[in-house]
Amino acid sequence: MELESVAEVLRIEKWRLKGAMERKNAFTIDDFSPPYILFRKELRHVEKGTSVFLGDSIEVIRGFPKIRRAFYLKPMLQKHFKDNVVIEEKMNGYNVRAALVDGKFVAITRGGFVCPYTTLKLQEDENLLKFLTHNPELVVCGEVVGMENPYVAHEYPEAERFGFFCFDLRYKSTNKALPIEKRNSLLEKYQLKSVRLLGTYRTGEIDRIFEIVRELGREGREGVVIKDPEMKLSPIKYTPSETNTSDLAYAFRYPYEYGRDFSFSRIIREGYQAAEWEESEEELETRAMRLGKSILFPMVRSIRKVMAGGVLTEDFIVRVNSEEEIKALVIFLRRQGINFILKDSGIDLDEHIYLIKRLRNSTTDKIKSYLSGRFE
Ligand code: ATP
Ligand code: MG
């Protein structure tokens, strides 16, 4: 294979790449044209989720970098950023990188897979295609949100079914992001939707930033991503209590499905935020109620469902144009080890609607075994 050239393009030693492939930390997807190597784990400077397409030329789409989180915001802002920061809304959907490889449009999920569903949907966006054709060296990074996708169903009035909101324009092989102003003017020029820009602030204006976060919480929106206007420093995320607890509510619907770190981190956030916001006894009571309820209620509901003989599932709606499209999606999801039942939900506006009922078997089985007398 052209391992040597791939190593060269990635600026990584050949033996390292070879080792990663032997350990299956990088593997080839060869039922896609062009075939691509996917990095399941990071390898030196090559991020997890990087895809290397082996077409006429070798093209790299680097993995989307991890965004670190602030628990206690004030000192972190001063320490990490320069004078000013840009505050953007953090949207709750799934991360997609859209690009042209070998002239072909692809939509890549966080893990580095070309998702057939997302590719088909985004391909309908003429502005996006035009942008990429004019800027083939760039990757459009954004969040897909709305109720019709196989990954994250969350309501957004501005995109009830399916919407794509850009947050970064990055160079294909270096992963460098364009400065915010440059990004904004390009997105505007091509009329691409962007995440909401909530303003530029001095790092000292912490109270105004907290007010924004509180307001987003009240509106049921996920939170903020804080960025260096030049995009030279890495962004930081921060979320309101409503988001931390709604994540917990989700995790405790399927308590054996989510790693303990997931829940622990979200509980800890509540502690730091309450302390930093200098909350009164009364405010703490409200927070405590919200936190406790988010853990207990969904868990009891799930246990009761299993008591009644039910099976725990998480339902997603998808909308496709043809049977081939749903077949491609089913194969794609199953290959990633996702366990689900597919239900035909009929036709709407000439399109086929399907329900993907994702089985949460670990939780169902574990609860069942406790209910039938097992002990720790
Ligand atoms: P990670 O912590 O590895 O980045 P995660 O799955 O825990 O991943 P999140 O907690 O959702 O991710 O936070 C990071 C993600 O937020 C990004 O990968 C991106 O998909 C999403 N996101 C939403 N809005 C923005 C925005 N305005 N700027 C950057 N990323 C955003
Ligand atoms: Mg997210």
Task: Tell me about this structure.
- With 376 residues, this protein is an alpha+beta fold.
- The chain has 4 domains: 3-61, Nuclear Transport Factor 2, Chain: A (Roll); 68-237, 2-Layer Sandwich (D-amino Acid Aminotransferase, Chain A, domain 1); 241-299, Up-down Bundle (Methane Monooxygenase Hydroxylase, Chain G, domain 1), CATH 1.20.58; 313-359.
- It is 39% helix and 26% strand.
- It contains 12 helices and 16 strands.
- It has helices spanning 3-10, 14-22, 73-80, 116-123, 126-134, 180-189, 206-218, 241-253, 260-276, 281-307, 323-335, 361-371, and strands at 26-29, 36-39, 51-54, 58-61, 68-69, 84-90, 94-101, 104-109, 138-145, 163-171, 197-202, 223-227, 236-238, 313-320, 340-348, 351-359.
- The strands form 4 sheets. A 5-stranded mixed beta sheet has the order 5-13-12-6-11, with helices on one face.
- Strand 15 and strand 16 form a beta hairpin.
- Helix 8 runs antiparallel to helix 9, helix 8 (241-253) packs parallel to helix 10 (281-307) and helix 10 packs across helix 12 (361-371).
- The longest helix is centred in the last third of the chain and has 27 residues, at 281-307.
- It is globular.
- The N and C termini lie far apart (50 Å).
- The model has no long low-confidence stretch (mean pLDDT 97).
- The protein binds adenosine-5'-triphosphate and magnesium ion.
